[in-house]
Amino acid sequence: MNPIESLVSNLHELAAQVPEIIQPLVVALAGAVPFVEGEGGAIIGVVGGMHVIIAAIAAAAGNFLSVLVVVLLGSRARHAVVERRAVHAVAAGAAAAGGSVETLPAVSVKPESKGQQRFKRWLVRFGVPGASILGPLAIPTQFTSAMLVAAGTPRGWVLLWQAVAIILWTTVAAVSVWAALTFIVLA
């Protein structure tokens, strides 16, 4: 038995200890973890003996739910920051014009980091669809979606394209590992 067959056999034995109805939840939890994501969760499920479609759906759902939480929280945080900056700008303008506004702490404008500049160039070059679909090649979807929302992209647009990317990459990973196991390793 080669090492890959041994790994598959051991993962099957481990998965057999988990009730069958709980297995998709385990895969969904794996899909929610950054750097594991839908692709890794689907691979874990397929190698563990789950049907490829169930593993892919569970992993993609877990990945999308974590992205949904990040987008909703990131959108609220961005809204709060934008509102606060607007209040400070109005107050500073009134104070400069000689109004009787309390002195507020000055809002310092930090220069953009190299990473922020690179991300903005990438966003301008590829747009939200390209950033969402190509993003998982470099960073987790949760990070990509947080950066897109922080840059001011509407959350519905981010969620739509993140869903497309998650479905695409999870499907590619699940079908690839299924085909490799079916036609190469276990043939």
UniProtKB/TrEMBL annotation:
Keyword Transmembrane helix recorded: yes
Keywords: Membrane, Transmembrane, Transmembrane helix
TM regions (residue ranges): 42-75, 122-139, 159-186
Domain of life: Bacteria
Name recorded for this polypeptide: Small multidrug efflux protein
